[in-house]
Amino acid sequence: MRDLTEHLGLAQSTVSAHLACLRECGLVSSRPEGRASVFSLTCTSELLAVLEAAEQVLATTGWAVALCPNYGVGSMGTPTPGDLKSHHGSGGM
Known about the structure:
With 93 residues, the chain is an alpha+beta fold. Helices cover 40% and strands 13% of the residues. It folds into 2 domains: 1-42, no CATH class; 44-93, no CATH class.
């Protein structure tokens, strides 16, 4: 957990909540090790294939998602459908 919070720059409670969700969905498993928990991917090759595909999509689009006014870097939260911003003129897409 500490490794993830430091690497991601997120609060421990945020990382913990996401890991609990991933565990409930069956994407990760955990085992206690001392006072800590060690998390592992449950279907490593399939998840790595998804991540590789996502990286290829991002590379193909020129990382435009980082510039997306709704979900990109610097956006705040998840917008409701009525709050979605247009990509036209935003420099994004």
